[in-house]
UniProtKB/TrEMBL annotation:
UniProt xrefs under InterPro entries: DNA-bd_HTH_TetR-type_CS, Homeodomain-like_sf, HTH-type_TetR-like_transc_reg, HTH_TetR, Tet_transcr_reg_TetR-rel_C_sf, TetR_C_Proteobacteria
Lineage, top ranks: Bacteria, Pseudomonadati, Pseudomonadota, Gammaproteobacteria, Pseudomonadales
Protein name per UniProt: HTH tetR-type domain-containing protein
Superkingdom classification of source: Bacteria
Record key words, sorted: DNA-binding, Transcription, Transcription regulation
GO molecular function, one term: transcription cis-regulatory region binding
Amino acid sequence: MTAPLRLTDRKREAIVQAAIAEFRDNGFEVTSMDRIAARAEVSKRTVYNHFPSKEELFSEMLHRLWSSAATQTDAVYKPGVPLRDQLRELLDAKMKTLGDSNFIDLARVAIGATIHSPDRAQVWVSRLNQREETFTVWVRGAQQDGRLKAVEPVFAASQIHALLKAFAFWPQVTLNEPLLAPDKQREVVESALDLFLCWYEIPLDKSSI
């Protein structure tokens, strides 16, 4: 049984949720600590006790964004296992994140806040690339085993993630389109597998099996 949150923890959570809502509704620049305090129904002093600045609140929001995206399958290449099966497992994990409404909501707020700040945008892109490094590791492993053509692993990782994000991230973040239904998610994943493996996979030499 989960222990109930302490009053101070409940107030902190209320502040974070209020900040996310304010950033989403009004943008980072317009949002003030006064507005966040009012929305969280706490004093402004309480807000500052938990977060010294609006930037600290934004950092907390980004931390939650990265944490929600971090529960991915370890991208360890497995010799002898069909590439399609391995890659499907990785893409299914990625699609699970992209199908999380909380992740999409946080991403929408984060992107909106970075538009007018190159420094914040640089942090966002850097963190996003780190989340995709696991797939880069998998590509290197498959190449070393002679199963994938020579291609820059980071380039390949960006390609296949773009195939998913074109349907399950950018339309939802920028156009507020609904999350993909499970059958549509499967269609996007299988199509991405077809395109990626058709171009990069090196077929096994059956005569050596």
